[in-house]
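A reminder from the course coordinator: this example appears on the midterm review sheet, so study it carefully.

Given structure:
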């Protein structure tokens, strides 16, 4: 799960650097339904789910999707982004509980 700052204080050049950093890290993952799943939330005034878990089944598709994320601009609302990610990406209905012995 990546949360990327798309607020006006970042600026386009640094936003593009952040996306490239995410892509560099992600390119080493084995993205598939059986292995690594990645989600991306961008935030400024309002958080936006850019990529949901399981949306992309290959590294190439995921990297293309990350590359195409457009810069939002707006105020920095980091706390709102973390709450959004907790509620929409890591919600209890999306979790698998371990088996009990």
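Designed residues:
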């Amino acid at each position: 799960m990546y949360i990327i700052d798309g607020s006006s204080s970042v600026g386009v050049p640094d936003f593009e650097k952040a996306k490239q950093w995410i892509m560099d890290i992600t390119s080493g993952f084995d993205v598939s339904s059986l292995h690594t799943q990645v989600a991306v939330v961008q935030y400024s005034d309002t958080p936006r789910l850019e990529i949901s878990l399981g949306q992309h089944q290959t590294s190439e598709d995921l990297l293309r999707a990350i590359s195409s994320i457009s810069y939002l601009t707006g105020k920095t609302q980091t706390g709102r982004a973390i709450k959004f990610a907790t509620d929409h990406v890591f919600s209890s209905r999306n979790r698998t509980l371990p088996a009990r012995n």
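The chain has a mean pLDDT of 89. The beta strands are 2-5, 40-43, 48-51.
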